[in-house]
Write a structure and sequence with these properties.
The protein is mainly α and 235 residues long. Helix content is 76%, strand content 0%. It has helices at residues 6-9, 15-23, 27-49, 52-69, 79-111, 115-118, 130-148, 152-163, 168-175, 179-205, 213-234. The two termini are 27 Å apart.
Length: 235
């Protein structure tokens, strides 16, 4: 009797079955595992390294380490949890190595500078990077849209108090309303705005560090290529 194929079981294959298959050299089972865990591992690595390309490299290396050690997996934890631990260790090691390299570059460069050149005016503004400027612009547009969506009475009070920084008394005088009304409307406006922005953020969480199909395929292809090289050497 032949074992059930990976294609037949698909996403329902349990860890207790997929690990032994990989240990026996089942490339299809390994690919299924990678596609099942890729996004989680990538986001984990990305959260440590804060670099897309390096996170991909860390995930690939973690898979190679996992492949070599898959025979030791006993199912005490979920297979995905086991993989996350591996990618965390790999990412931390890469981060530390990168930090040490940055320190060496910084110290060696500082030795070549004159004392006068080492003095930095901490109050001098650093030119804003294009990606930061774009992010700030998008944040500003989002905030403006949400302020525009506030009820008329609340919006005016909010703009005067938060953006123009008028006092409660100045705002009340400007709009011809009681100070207590200004306080109430401003409080309500902030609550509505906070709720609206939180709603946008909740939707954005699912897309954070987006794991597109191309990235998933690239990681799988890279690991499978390295796996073939490993198997060729062992043959």
């Amino acid at each position: 009797m032949h074992p059930v194929s990976v294609e037949a079981t698909g996403k329902d294959m349990p860890d207790t079955e997929i690990a032994p298959r990989i240990a026996l050299g089942d490339a299809d089972a390994f690919e299924l595992l990678m596609r099942r865990c890729n996004r989680t591992l990538y986001r984990t690595a990305r959260s440590i390294l804060k670099d897309d390309a390096e996170a991909e490299d860390a995930v690939q290396e973690a898979y190679m380490l996992a492949y070599r050690a898959i025979g030791s997996f006993r199912g005490d934890a979920k297979l995905s949890t086991w993989l996350v631990r591996i990618v965390v260790n790999e990412s931390i090691a890469r981060f530390r190595k990168r930090s040490r390299r940055a320190e060496i570059i910084q110290f060696s460069g500082a030795q070549e500078q004159d004392a006068d050149a080492q003095e930095v005016n901490v109050n001098e503004a650093t030119p804003e990077q294009p990606e930061h400027a774009a992010m700030r612009a998008e944040t500003r547009r989002l905030l403006e849209r949400k302020i525009d969506a506030l009820p008329d009475a609340f919006r005016t009070v909010f703009v005067l108090r938060a953006l123009e920084e008028l006092t409660v008394e100045e705002t009340a005088e400007t709009l011809g309303i009681a100070a207590a009304t200004v306080r109430t409307r401003y409080f309500r406006a902030k609550g509505l705005l906070r709720e609206a922005l939180a709603h946008e953020i909740d939707f954005a969480f699912g897309d954070a560090f987006a794991f597109a199909g191309a990235r998933c395929d690239r990681i799988v292809a890279g690991v499978l290529a390295r796996l073939k090289e490993l198997q060729a050497r062992d043959a």
